[in-house]
Amino acid sequence: MKRRESVPIEIENVTKTYGSMTALDNVSLSIARGEFVSILGASGSGKTTLLMAIAGFTMPSSGRIRFGERDVTLTEPHKRKIGMVFQNYALFPNMTVGGNIAYPLRLRKLPAVQIAAKVKRALQTIQLDGFAERRIDQLSGGQRQRVALARAIVFEPDILLMDEPLSALDKKLREQMQIEVRHLHQDLGLTTVFVTHDQREAFTMSDRVALIDKGQFVQIGAPSELYNRPASRFVADFVGQSYFLPVAVSGDEASFAGQRLLLPGPLSSPVSRQFLVIRPEYLEISEDDPRPGENILRGIFKELIFQGESSLAFVGLPDGQDIGLRLSGRQVESIRNLAFGSSVNLALAAEQTLVLP
Ligand code: ADP
Ligand code: MG
């Protein structure tokens, strides 16, 4: 496949209702030319509805969708120049691999010579050279999904849409395919919208992630932004693992267990019920005195579980919560002499001290 000019997508105030049910609630999103954006959310949050609206299989109740300068809100799906991949492949099982990939080209009535050349190139792109004559039922799950991908890009669409295409694959293969999809995107530069409920999958492939809940975007940003600067407790909870410790707020100060917390900036909200959001990997078990610019949480070392590539250490905090810390082999070595039941200091850098309502 050669690299080609893709188009930006503009989603403007799109709402979709089914009777009294609101599947999409006034969502807006600008996707740049060649950008890879994932729509991330729990089951029933509205991901598929949004993708179907972009594809043209679902008409928004209100709002507009544009591909570049072109308003496609009322355009039929087959005139939108989009390639699509779904979870259940939707390949023709009794056709060959080549027949499946050629299908969209035959629909578009391309000459046979051109079809053959494009199919050959698509097979190279997905690294299934020489598989043209295989039947679909002779392929593994990963190979089938690659064929579905080839069929979606063979007619050189403007945009690629994917709805949980990897969720039927086992973990190892899924992770391998995520890297392949990422590389394919880097090679082709196609504007891509990828739907998934899996945070790590979204992070692995995307330039930006749009987190959706009950038909509304709750945060849109680069993976590191969602992870390190979650806009709300919901985001911090959905993206990665977090512990939430209630803090006392007075004025612009927050304290935990009677100790004032050093914060990276002013509190985002003046409300009194707020939480210290802890990513376990932000904490460092420390036996030393606190260094400047860090907060110290005092806890009791309770348990250490060896899990292979890393270990899990549980530390009880003054509010009664146990926090599980993931430790590398070297970190475990450094606390080798620490007895269960003894007190430990957990150091948390001020810039990673996040307090949210
Ligand atoms: P997701 O893909 O995130 O799991 P969907 O977009 O499929 O979520 O669905 C969002 C909400 O809209 C769900 O509550 C679902 O039941 C509802 N919904 C989707 N399609 C229809 C439909 N054709 N008729 C009625 N309700 C629908
Ligand atoms: Mg869905």
UniProtKB/TrEMBL annotation:
Question: What GO CC terms are in its UniProt record?
Answer: ATP-binding cassette (ABC) transporter complex
Q: Name one GO biological process term.
A: putrescine transport
Q: Cite the ABC transporter domain residue spans from the record.
A: 9-239
The protein's matches in Pfam families, at most eight in alphabetical order, are given as: ABC_tran, TOBE_2
Q: What class of enzyme is it?
A: translocase
Which UniProt keywords are given for this protein, alphabetically ordered?
ATP-binding, Cell membrane, Membrane, Nucleotide-binding, Translocase, Transport
Reported EC number(s) for this entry are: 7.6.2.11
Write down the SUPFAM superfamilies for this protein, in alphabetical order.
MOP-like, P-loop containing nucleoside triphosphate hydrolases
Among the GO molecular function terms of this UniProt record, one is: ATP binding
Reactions listed under catalytic activity: ATP + H2O + polyamine-[polyamine-binding protein]Side 1 = ADP + phosphate + polyamineSide 2 + [polyamine-binding protein]Side 1
Which InterPro entries has this protein been placed in? AAA+_ATPase, ABC_SmlMolc_Importer, ABC_transporter-like_ATP-bd, ABC_transporter-like_CS, Mo/tungstate-bd_C_term_dom, P-loop_NTPase, PotA-like, Transp-assoc_OB_typ2
Q: Which domain of life is it from?
A: Bacteria
Q: Which SMART domains match?
A: AAA
- Alphabetical list of PANTHER family matching this protein: SPERMIDINE/PUTRESCINE IMPORT ATP-BINDING PROTEIN POTA (PTHR42781), SPERMIDINE_PUTRESCINE IMPORT ATP-BINDING PROTEIN POTA (PTHR42781:SF4)
What interactions and quaternary structure are annotated? The complex is composed of two ATP-binding proteins (PotA), two transmembrane proteins (PotB and PotC) and a solute-binding protein (PotD).
Q: Which family does it belong to?
A: Belongs to the ABC transporter superfamily. Spermidine/putrescine importer (TC 3.A.1.11.1) family.
Q: Function of this protein?
A: Part of the ABC transporter complex PotABCD involved in spermidine/putrescine import. Responsible for energy coupling to the transport system.
According to UniProt, the name of this protein is Spermidine/putrescine import ATP-binding protein PotA
